[in-house]
Design brief:
A: Ubiquitin-like (UB roll); three-stranded antiparallel β-sheet; B: 318 residues; mainly alpha
């Protein structure tokens, strides 16, 4: 028996919000994936828009490389507003 | 070996700090295996759990009851799918999971090996069986493996409707004729003990408990959850005017909990080993559905491949 391809499902819960990953499912093509996603992940009006992406097309960063990937941001505290010393009486900034 | 040991220590410290483990993170092989076993068993239970209830869909007494039961059974299918999806993140294929169910290698909750002989059973399943499942599932919302915890959060949100629809069925029967009240009491008599067994073996005999607690896959022991379930059921039974079939059920001033009688563990193990009233029937129904649906799955795949091929040929010509 051949497995149907695996798809990742993303749901936008309402206009103005990002699509968010909710899980995966199996389907033969994109049309079936959307229909199945509707039945599996939005039985109680959880969404107004669906994205399905075949799982093999998702490329992810590796947890073992987290250090190299994220370290460069750790020592750049000057990217945050609180790095800058301003007087307390200063307003609207 | 020293490497594995330090990885394991680091893993445990992540778990101890209440940080979730995600699919691509390093994890001990035994943690992965335990999760695959537990999540797949949980998924199979949702799928097999549709069978005893499906038995009553076209005999539901009113349209209100029928739509409720249909929606509930559909949810069980959904819950099975969330869980299979979580399980697949651990690196096992869906087909392999199905094969394990169909060959009898993987277990599912023994409660579904009991028959649903009257309409009141549908109510009793919602109240007691789903009630017991919710106890366990609320705890699992905080399990250490991210995809499993997220699936459980979705499931718990939906499960409360299941329990309420079951309880409403029983409440209606409790206000009905003498025969209806007898039907209610009979269902409770048959489902009470198997529901207590759902929490699994007691402390000493629960083989997986200690390690699962350490890895924070489980947060409470089988016995703690079972006690919690007994305690909350008493008041709910009173409102229905039913007796729970246990002469030893008694409030204990000292512990602040209800003491209850000895569970028939021989029956428990007998059903786990495949000798319950419906084990063969349930598994046969799953295998039949899978085998008879094979050509549909094959045809759908062949159609999709053909469409994709045509599309790519058309784009070449253009």
């Amino acid at each position: 028996m051949k497995n149907w391809p695996l798809w990742e499902v993303f749901v936008r819960s309402k206009q103005g919000l990002h699509h968010k990953h909710v899980g995966s499912l199996h389907a033969t093509d994109e049309k079936m994936a959307i229909e199945n996603a509707r039945d599996v992940y939005t039985r109680r009006s959880e969404g107004v828009s669906l994205w399905v992406v075949e799982s093999k097309h998702i490329h992810a960063s590796s947890p073992s490389e987290s250090a190299e990937l994220y370290d460069p941001a750790n020592d750049k505290i000057y990217r945050h507003p609180t790095f800058y010393d301003l007087p307390d009486e200063l307003e609207h900034i | 070996m020293a490497d594995i040991k330090s990885l394991e220590e680091k893993f445990q410290s992540i778990v101890d700090a209440e940080t979730k483990i995600e699919p691509k993170d390093w994890m001990p092989e035994a943690y992965r295996k335990t999760l695959i076993r537990q999540i797949s068993q949980h998924a199979h239970s949702e799928i097999v759990g549709m069978l005893p209830e499906g038995n009553w869909i076209n005999r539901a007494p009113t349209l209100r009851r029928k739509v409720g039961l249909l929606a509930k059974v559909q949810d069980e299918a959904g819950h099975g799918l969330y869980l299979y999806s979580a399980c697949e993140t651990l690196g096992i294929e869906r087909d392999e999971l199905f094969d394990q169910l169909h060959s009898g290698k993987a277990k599912y909750s023994s409660i579904f090996n009991y028959p649903t002989t009257s309409w009141a059973d549908i109510g009793a399943i919602g109240w007691l069986v789903d009630g017991a499942a919710i106890m366990n599932q609320v705890m699992l919302c905080r399990t250490s493996y991210g995809p499993y915890a997220r699936a459980m959060v979705r499931i718990c949100k939906e499960e409360s409707f299941h329990q309420r629809q079951g309880y409403e069925i029983l409440l209606t029967l409790s206000k009905g004729s003498e025969e209806q009240r007898a039907m209610l009491q009979d269902a409770v008599n048959r489902w009470w003990w198997p529901s207590l067994m759902m929490f699994g073996p007691t402390g000493k005999e629960s083989t997986h408990s200690a390690q699962s607690m350490k890895w924070k896959i489980k947060r409470k022991t089988n016995d703690e959850l079972r006690q919690q379930f007994v305690d909350i059921s008493i008041g709910q039974a009173e409102i229905l005017g039913v007796t729970l079939p246990d002469p030893d059920l008694k409030y204990n001033e000292e512990t602040g909990h209800y003491d209850f009688g000895e569970i028939d563990w021989e029956e428990f193990w007998n059903v786990v080993k495949g000798n319950g009233p419906c084990n063969k029937e349930r598994l046969a129904a799953r295998v039949k559905a899978s085998e008879e649906g094979q050509w549909v799955r094959d045809a759908a795949m062949a159609y999709a491949e053909k469409q994709a091929k045509r599309k790519s040929e058309a784009s070449k010509v253009a």
